[in-house]
């Protein structure tokens, strides 16, 4: 007899399946929008429609510097690299779903949202975000934002993606 998956595992599996469509050479990310127990949409990261993706045209990487003020008053500089050709899975999910569908919904995403995606999700009407892989570059400030807004932010640390999904993350 097989064991029935809980809802978070089931929908996170679907987000991982969506990630298999990504052509990003650095990170395959998938997202799913769920209201109640109803799947309303999926998305993955990649170049805009009709534009050569990173596997065809190469990554378009920019480096940003971020200054963080530490508790002791000192500043810490962090380098962040990102591809500006790629639209994130969460952004695509928001672009291809209706606002009324997002009100009171849950977003399942393979990776913790970056700061930009977290801000967009915060204004989208969702009430909960469930993710698997941590994103250390923005982790603390994203968690704080979600706490301030009362959006449930669940890290499925012990989750295991479906066996057929290859996971490789290049930072």
From TrEMBL:
Its cofactor is Zn(2+). GO terms for cellular component: cytoplasm. Keywords: Hydrolase, Metal-binding, Zinc. One of its GO terms (molecular function) is dCMP deaminase activity. The active site is at 90 (proton donor). Residues 6-153 form the CMP/dCMP-type deaminase domain. Zn(2+) binds at residues 88, 114, 117. GO terms for biological process: pyrimidine nucleotide metabolic process. Coiled coil: none annotated. Belongs to the cytidine and deoxycytidylate deaminase family. PANTHER family: DEOXYCYTIDYLATE DEAMINASE, DEOXYCYTIDYLATE DEAMINASE-RELATED. This is CMP deaminase. It comes from Paenibacillus psychroresistens.
